[in-house]
Structure to design on (319 residues):
């Protein structure tokens, strides 16, 4: 039993690879290292340096008895996708088409797809479920929804077994060797500001929430990896899964709560600057994780301090 992890040199993907390996499941990694790191992949894990849009690279990664794919590779920056729509669609839609074509050619019939809660756009309710309307507001969110459609339609035409996992903000580190290096994510932005002696800031402090700042899901990357593993094992066992699952906290955390935890854990005292709201930021978006808890061993196993501490320790280890 060997699974291909696309994007397996990235922040989330590298944690998924380790979760599989801890379970005794062999992996192959396909990654073009546009945002991932070769050092994040264990030396004894087969690695193909290539893009999803390169059919030869995908064929190479799938050759040799791969039984399923965890598909995490893609262009993941929602804000940047607005100014780079064609790049986003090429990487996320065309790349998924190429992957599905190659899977069919190699007889690989299982996929766990890393989708996004960006497919919901601005929901009508604070708590979204898998039945909430999908109204993505960026090329990134649209590309993820199209990816789900591609799996749905390929499954109708073939024997593909699949599920898609939707989630919001992924934080923390499962081991100090792996960390989030994205310049667009909250934790790296806050840490970079503190290390540079600057004051982190919050976008908007007058929302209709308990402390006036936006409330979102923040989920630990190790918990996320555990559910990707559970989904793969279920597909391998022939267990029927829902087409989509939310990996959500059910209640969320505010941006100010995150800032307070950062100060508490790092020992660096600061009062975040409050700037104007960003256009389009809803006050609250939180996903329910009930179905994933039932089927995919989904749990929020880490407190906010755990999340910050593990991420900070990984940041410190990289210095």
């Amino acid at each position: 039993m060997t699974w291909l992890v696309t994007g397996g040199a990235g922040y989330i993907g590298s944690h998924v690879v380790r979760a599989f390996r801890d379970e005794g499941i062999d992996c192959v990694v396909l990654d073009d290292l546009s945002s991932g790191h070769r050092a994040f992949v264990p030396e004894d894990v087969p690695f193909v340096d290539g893009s999803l849009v390169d059919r030869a690279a995908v064929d190479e990664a799938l050759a040799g008895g791969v039984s399923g794919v965890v598909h995490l590779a893609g262009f993941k920056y929602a804000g940047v996708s607005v100014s780079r729509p064609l790049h986003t669609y090429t990487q996320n839609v065309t790349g998924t088409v190429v992957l599905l074509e190659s899977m069919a050619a190699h007889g690989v019939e299982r996929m766990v797809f890393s989708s996004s809660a960006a497919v919901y756009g601005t929901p009508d309710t604070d708590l979204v479920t898998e039945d909430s309307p999908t109204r993505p507001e960026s090329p990134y969110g649209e590309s993820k929804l199209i990816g789900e459609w591609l799996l749905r339609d390929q499954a109708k035409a073939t024997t593909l077994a699949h599920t898609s996992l939707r989630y919001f903000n992924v934080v923390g580190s499962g081991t100090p060797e792996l960390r989030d290096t994205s310049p667009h994510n909250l934790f790296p932005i806050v840490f970079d500001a503190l290390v540079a002696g600057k004051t982190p800031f919050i976008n908007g402090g007058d929302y209709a929430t308990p402390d006036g700042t936006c409330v979102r899901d923040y989920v630990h990357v190790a918990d996320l990896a555990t559910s990707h593993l559970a989904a793969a094992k279920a597909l391998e066992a022939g267990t029927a899964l829902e087409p989509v699952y939310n990996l959500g906290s059910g209640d969320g955390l505010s941006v100010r709560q995150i800032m307070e935890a950062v100060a508490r854990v790092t020992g660096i005292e600061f009062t975040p600057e409050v700037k104007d709201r960003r256009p389009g930021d809803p006050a609250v978006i939180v996903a329910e994780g009930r179905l994933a808890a039932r089927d995919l061993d989904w749990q929020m196993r880490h407190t906010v301090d755990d999340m910050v501490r593990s991420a900070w320790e990984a940041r410190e280890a990289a210095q």
User: Anything to note?
Assistant: The longest strand covers residues 26-31. The two ends are 37 Å apart (CA to CA).
